[in-house]
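re: ur question from the group chat, yeah i did fold both. here u go
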Amino acid sequence: VQLQASGGGLVQAGGSLRLSCAASGRTFSSYAVGWFRQAPGKERQFVAAINYSGRSTYYADSVKGRFTISRNSVENTVYLQMNSLEPEDTAVYYCAARGYSLSYYPYDYNYWGQGTLVTVSS
């Protein structure tokens, strides 16, 4: 499966962005999808994940209550709605896919998108 992440940009603190992860190549509905981020000089960090059906989600404590992950099976797309953005959210955001169940470990994911840059100014 090929993944294309988009929706990043520059936003002021307190603002919102919606990231999209569009899939092609295989039936996306059998894959769990995770969002990860990587700031300069830091390790890749788990942000949120959703299982294949969309009924189960998981969030990092740092984004809980501010970010929402969802999926649209018809559009073959997973979204990450990011509200109340903080400068600490600045990073390249990646989406990744694996079979069925969600995980918060990057090494569990088989397919990765190219990343989209989110910059939050103070």
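okk and heres the other one u asked abt
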Amino acid sequence: VQLQASGGGAVQAGDSLRLSCTTSGRSDIGFAIGWFRQGPGKDREFVSGITRTGGGFEYADSVKGRFTISRDAAKNTVCLQMNSLKAEDTAVYYCAGRNNLYYSTSAYAYDYWGQGTLVTVSS
């Protein structure tokens, strides 16, 4: 199983980016997906998660109202739409897959990780 995160880039504060996480390999296994980020000098933190079915999701308080998570089961893809970006959103963003119906806010609960995509927001 592989996860591929993409869509990062360098933007100005207030701009938007759309990150994608595509899974490949065991397509017969559905994964709950979590997005995490790690900023400079910071610990990895939970950003958002979505259940395997897409029926449940959660956001960190710091991104509520600005980020939206969604999944396209046919494409094995989970997207994170990030609007109104702030300088403090600057980080490497990782997607992680969990062989479970439910996501977790703990990075230790995930079985597979993508390579990360860098988001840089300048003010």
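fwiw on the second one: The longest strand covers residues 17-24. The mean pLDDT is 94. idk if thats what u expected
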